[in-house]
Design a protein that fits this description.
The chain is α/β, with parallel strands linked by helices. The chain is about 30% helix and about 20% strand. It is globular.
Amino acid sequence: MGGGAYEIKPPKEILKYEFDTVVLGTFTGLDELKDQLLEMGILEEKIDSTYIESSVRARIAFLEDFAGVALEKNLPGNVAELGVYRGDFARHINANFPNKKLYLFDTFEGFSEKDIALEGNFSSSQNKHFSNTNIELVLEKMPYRENCIIKKGWFPQSAKDVMDNFCFVNLDADLYMPILEGLNFFYPKMVKGGVILIHEYFSKGYKGVKKAYEDFSADKNIISLPIGDNLSLAIIKT
């Protein structure tokens, strides 16, 4: 092979090779991939997910620290996530804001073809990405399940009846249009001192995320900064 191409092989092909370490380099389905390797008989000490887990920990640390600030300042408003997938980060939002409603926006069926069509570098088959989830799987992870409000469907239609204000929102929808619509919907509803976290902003795989923010913020005086996880940008409402 040449020209920088890489051969894609079925997962079980790995068993044909001798190796010291298997490096996991994806955020999506990290826990599921580790379990799959273990089920294939690969020893846990040979599975290295250090880089990915350090990024995840940085994101969770930011959330925990901000939740403490929000509590100290008694920030009003509820919390939300757009792009829930299997609920792994939503679980931390729910745990750190135990007295606030958590709105969970997702199709729970993967990417929408409407949104993929606008990306340019995505195929229609990629609407199956993030489809291995369901509402009950997500809710089972929530420590304060009674605070969760599921908003299933295509965003922003799924939010048409939501009138709340917010102090924290995580935008993790990966594509240009839902990120843009998320900013259009949530930014006016953020309380002073509230934060919108845009995941995948620094990603080279989901370039629509950064473009959505740039288009949204072009005519606005917005304060934003990276949070140290190499992926996320935080917007602070002033």
